[in-house]
Amino acid sequence: MPIPRRQFLRTSLGLGALLALRGTGRAADLIAPTSVTAPRGLLFDAADLPRLRANVQRPEFRAFWTFMTQVDFAAEEKFLNHELHFANHVVDMSRAQVIMQRSAFVHLLFPDARHLALARTALAKILGYPRWDWLRDSQQRPVGVMRGGGTCIALALAAEWLAADLSPAEQAAITERMGTEGAPAQYRGLHDMTHHTEVGPWSLEPGEEGLPPMAVDHWPRILDDTNLRITCTAGLAAATCHLWGRHPDAPKWLEMTRSSLQLYASRLPKDGSFPEGIGYWDYTFTHYTLALELLRRKLGVDERALVDFPAQGRYALEMSMPTAGHPDDCISIGDAATAAGAVPLMWIAREFRDTGAQYLALQPGAVRASWLSCLAAIWYDPAVPAKLPATARLDRQTDLGIIISRTGWEEQDTVVTLRSGRPVNHEHADRNSVIFKAHGERLFNDPLHANYSTKEPKWLLRQTEAHTAVLINGQGHIYHDGRDGVNSSTADAAIQDYRTGLNWMAVTSDAADAYHRAGLPAKLVQRTLVYVKPDVLVIFDRIFLTDPLPVSARFQVFNEDGAGQVSVEGAIFTITRPHATLRARVVTATPSTLATGKLALPESGGVYPFAEIRSAAALEHSLLTVCTAAPEGEGHGNLHVTTAEGAWDITGTHRGQNVVVRLIAAGKGAPVIVL
Fold it and tell me: Model's pTM, two decimal places?
């Protein structure tokens, strides 16, 4: 098909002096913004259109391109013309934005009158919203943190992608609203988050539909270092680029955009890990890299050196955990539910020739069926090889206190994780919880898809009792009541010891502080893992209390597909999944029982089974759980446990492997481990 004539895409791509500045200091400090008349497009130029057309038709982009092109036009038109509510930003405005972006991009690549008409209808509806967000500042002005950032991005791109087909009145309306609400509301949001100790409370827009009950008074403080800062920053970047040379405040908005990018980068852990988990890493760096590209291409401001992006790519790789039927599964600590998506990974791969990022970006499911995957199509460079880097680490302790140990990155490989560390946004009450994946199956599960509202039953999935973790007198550790959203609690846990060797890993973490903050008489809530690769996991729990109470240790079964089972026979429990089984022998120092149970949730929303060790009331508890994993159809070996004078010995064989582990426990310090 012929390349459509677009006024904004008349020059060829060229990085020129920007790339030449690499290695001479941060380019953003050396390059002054160019004139608004610079002919470059926001994200690509006319010469790139054939490349984009080829990318969207690659096999890796099939699900995305199907989503983009197989549109129910009648249903979308009905929604826009008869069902959209201007009081609903949460669902309706978001849907209108998706409709507009999807049809604008498709029409740009393959001109289609139906898509053009739908995009223009959606544009009119978005411009018809009296306000673009449902938050207000202390002076009752719009704050563009929740929906406003996406609106600015959508309109800036649509104004460019549809430039040859929009009327002067439509373009003028976009520019007017961006200048009167879009950029100012994003600026207010970033200002109030940055100066949260000095500003008044935020509030909800009266009459907003679709929101659960919540208090937002403290959100300037709560959101300051979260992913929503970057959504807002990207929105301001888009508005600034659109309004450069058209609005006198554009330089001020550029300064705030750059300041926010720099502040956020300064707060990131130095090892490349990400506090809010991999799902929000994906969302955050989709918008962070978008902001970088907008500023660099349109204004000549280069901030790529702010973040160690290869380290970010390594973090994304380390958090991946493919399972049978779920190649995009992840280490689901907190609200994480899927591995990193292709958008930021393809940008990292392109910019840094990062083969590991390319490897992960091309895994099945990485290119999402979402309009944001337009960015992946724009940034994908097939010349970058896709392969695991030689520096990929099998054992990892992150700055956040998360321990990861694995045998590899394939579906059949084994992964063990322990969640220790400090509180973070989007966390669960999950200190000392464990994930164990082997032979394509989650064998000890960490819950997925917890609700964000306390009014919904699956808010329970955030609690300690829904994790593979310890309960004291049936209670978990400190969390919060959700009134301010899913922000961080005050729970903490500390790594006492961490060691690795040839084909083994051992770690000890104490979470007593988190339980004590919940009013429980905890002196020590210590969990030790000894992982003998590939299939043996020893879990040793020691709990010291100031009052004699019962304790329990739960082991959650993955059952979202209805195929998870757990059974108990004497001191052994067995978890069965379609492709693997887990067998665990339990030995305790105090009288105990072993039983199965399920979370107290309506079965219409799924059944959540678990095995549970229940230790009778005492001041000190020691629970040893010796686990073996095996692929479906294979048996388990015999591992024997003996104990005397504080020493616990595990010996035997499993799948042809000799196992000899000794744990020596004394006092509150980490047990001595002999392998």
Answer: 0.91
CA distance 539 to 549: 21
CA 511 to chain centre: 24
* Selection from 673, 320, 667, 384 nearest residue 510 by Cα: 667
**Cα-based distances in Å from 23 to 26, 304, 353:** 8, 12, 16
Q: Give residue-wise pLDDT tens across range 431-465.
A: 999 999 999 999 999 999 999 999 999 999 999 99
Q: What is d(CA 366, CA 281) in angstroms, rounded to the nearest whole number?
A: 14
Asked if 477 contacts 463 with a C-beta cutoff of 8 angstroms, the reply is no
pLDDT in tens, 61-113: 999 999 999 999 999 999 999 999 999 999 999 999 999 999 999 999 999 99
Look up residue 156 and give its two tokens: 């800036």
H-state helical runs in 57-135: 62-69, 73-78, 94-109, 113-128
Radius of gyration over alpha carbons of the chain, in Å?
27
Sign of the torsion formed by the C-alpha atoms of 72, 75, 77 and 79:
negative
Q: Is the pLDDT of residue 3 over 80?
A: no
The mean per-residue pLDDT over the stretch 333-358 comes to: 97
CA distance 114 to 23: 48
Task: Look at residue 39 in the predicted model and tell me its pLDDT.
Answer: 58
User: Long-range CB contacts (< 8 A, 24+ apart) of 560-565?
Assistant: 560/448, 560/449, 560/606, 561/325, 562/607, 564/445, 564/609, 565/609
**3-state SS class at 68:** helix
From the list 580, 579, 436, 428, the residue with the least C-alpha distance to 493 is 428
User: 536 in helix, strand or coil?
Assistant: strand
3-state SS class at 137: coil
Whose structure tokens read 């492997």?
A: 657
CB atoms within 10 A of CB 411: 18
> Per the structure block, which two tokens stand in for 564?
């998870």
d(Cα 238, Cα 154) in Å, to the nearest integer? Answer: 9
Give me the half-sphere count of Cα atoms (radius 13 Å) on the Cβ side of residue 393.
18
Within 8 A by CB and 6+ apart from 418, the residues are 402, 403, 432, 433, 434, 507, 509, 527, 529
Rounded Cα distance between 292 and 271, Å, is: 21
Q: What is the spatial distance between Cα 672 and Cα 675, in angstroms, rounded to a whole number?
A: 10
Check residue 182 and report its DSSP letter.
Answer: I
Say if residues 77 and 93 touch (Cβ distance below 8 Å). Answer: no
User: What is d(CA 648, CA 394) in angstroms, rounded to the nearest whole number?
Assistant: 27
pLDDT of residue 485: 87
Please answer whether residues 538 and 643 qualify as being in contact, where contact means their C-beta atoms are separated by less than 8 angstroms.
Answer: no
For residues 349 and 76, the answer to whether their CB atoms sit within 8 Å is: no
| Confidence band for 40, pLDDT divided at 50, 70 and 90 | confident
Q: φ, ψ for residue 537 (rounded to 5)?
A: -130, 125
* Contact residues for 426 (Cβ-Cβ < 8 A; gap 6+): 226, 276, 277, 280, 334, 335, 486
Name 355's Cβ contacts closer than 8 Å, sequence gap at least 6. Answer: 349, 384, 385, 386, 387, 388, 389
The two structure tokens encoding residue 214: 């919540």
Query: Distance of CA 293 to CAs 41, 60, 202, Å?
Result: 10, 23, 31
Q: How far is it, in rounded angstroms, from Cα 612 to Cα 623?
A: 11
* Closest to 237 in 3D by CA, of 453, 50, 42: 42
